Structure prediction request, 550 residues.
Amino acid sequence: MKKLIYIFLAFGVLLSGCNDFLEIDPIARETEESFFETPENAIYAVNACYDIIGMTEGPGPDGQWLSHNYEFFFGDFLSDDAEKGSKEADFQELQEMIEWRVTSGSGVLESLWIKCYDGIYRTNSVLKQLANSTLDESLKTRLEGEAYFIRGYFYFYLVKVYGGVPLFTEPLTPAEFGTLQRASYHETFEQAIADFKAAIDRLPEKSGYDSSEKGRATKGAARTYLARTLMYQIGMDSESTASWDDVYEQTSAVIASNEYQLVSNYATIFEMEGENNSESIFELQMLEGTTGNAPQKTGTNFNQFQGNRKDWGWGFNNPSENLFASFETDDPRLSCTVYGASFNDGIVHGVKQEYDFTEQMSPYLNRKAALEPAFRPSISKSSAFNVRKSRYAEVLLMHAEAAYHKGDEGTAKQMLEMIRDRARSSSFAKGYTEGSTDYTPTGFSNNLPEVSTSGQDLLNDIWHERRVELAMEAHRFWDLVRTGRYLDALDTKKSTFKTSDGTAFRYENTDLRGNCLEKSIDGPNGNKVPLMPIPLREVEDWGLVQNSGY
Prediction:
């Protein structure tokens, strides 16, 4: 499934074109229903559902141009791990999101909404047609599982960004347009959870797929996303009845499956040779294409969007100095997370690069998105770099946090030790040494001591390990929100984040905390959960109630 096949599920469009031959009996014409009687067609239709997850910019289902969208717009930008990057005036809409002053007219937020509902429409169409298909039952069950997983992914994305949204579990009819109101925050979480559970019941394990089917949703991926959803719900949904026992159950099942293991060298994970490794749980498969825009695009702008503007990139998503300082001394993972003029003499992929601080908003760039020159597309903006969505290290860290809350500090420490032991023995990032594209040994010994804390200090250590292990992987913002630490992180940004030239505090005249509180709902234990605005066109067309503060 390296090449994701872009197929709109409005099969009438695909099967039209016979208007000049109305006098002839169309005996060979496929209908939407008969389309799903062929295994290849059914698989293509499911592939089209995956395609929306990886879509960046380009024309949407109605031809409207859709803006770039990446999970790091929220998970990294909104947190203390990153700055928007690029030139100060570039893509100001993203800066408005960071400062919690974005409006409901945001093109980024409207594009995300459209993409999510396009994906939901596709999965609903697949599920409807598969229900009556005469396909082999094992294939039909698996394809249903993939569709449920993808629909759960989109509802989970929507609830994190917008809160409660309209819920569709089958294709929308014309009579329903503009009539369905928003579900509650809790109901939207529950829909994502139900979809992931339905996927678990239907999907095979990773080993149940042929090697040519890499990237498809698996039982392990559905359990991982269910655990993540439950963990977020515990800290963000005041009506939630989920417990840490539920999270522990799902992560335990992934661990017990023996389908995954940590790769031996952390530095390999985000290199091309690290694609679909033993640690990969869900990974978007990409193929270099001949165009930069959807729907023809088969690759991604993920790397170029975050690359050095003086080399081959647009300079966005700059790791913060606060994130840099959070790494312990001699942690090799730092070299795999950042690069820049003030780190390792500016060397990346064996080359000492030039940098322009007027085109960055911190001293650093994201090393996890730094694509080797040999793999950069020569004829398009679309690269073949697989986008890593979830990996086994996250499962171990969720398991550690769940074990802690269950009172099992021994298991929590065991999970942390597995993560830290791998980090100790890892190399520097590939090409850390000038003139070399190899993995340079660190020469460190006795670095990263074993965790020996307990109580709140142990929980802090778990949170710290999540931050450095999963840095720049779009987790941090929601980790801060669900644990009630986000407002304090905003205070830290206001008092310490400086302009690119270091002469002023970037947010000195911006009320980050106040802006955020205006846009927040109440979560459990006094947690404040900020939400983005529902796109203006959706509010007007559907009569939806807008989120507070917009």
